Amino acid sequence: MDINLEKKLEEAARKAIKKLLSENKEHFYYCSLITDGEGHCPVISAWSQEALERILEEEAEPDEDMETVRLEYKWSYADSPYYAYGEEFFEEIKELFDDGMEDLDDEQAEEEVNLRIEAMERVMAALDQEGLFGIGDDRMKIVINAEIMPPDYGNTERAIRLNPKEALKEWLEEIAEFE
Q: What pTM value is reported for the model?
């Protein structure tokens, strides 16, 4: 992956996450850059305690087990009301991501997807170092990641590298993929 593309990805993610946090004064517990197995341009997905409660109030049926419903939504990138948040900041790099794949054979495409996911992880680590996800006790309240969907064990490995153990406890118990 081109270093320029990675820098542009970092800028886009920073802007999107800053907008998310400034426009939504909520208690976020999850924020991830998400891509698919074909290496398309990633998007932000996030969840807050308040958003989860709103969804549960709207979606739950009276006879349903609320804990089961909660777990269905809690970590679901696609069901989040903050899926693809700040997408406008990714417009410029979307073309660069999509244009770079069409001439690659399967092996080259797989290698490029891996390079892109590694770059996504570096971006999230850099934003974390800046304190974007909080500092000290506040940082322990959010899980950050760079994920591929459908999920695989690599998502768990990246989550472990990107997060303090204390922040990751619930995520590991409830959703992590294991080999």
A: 0.93
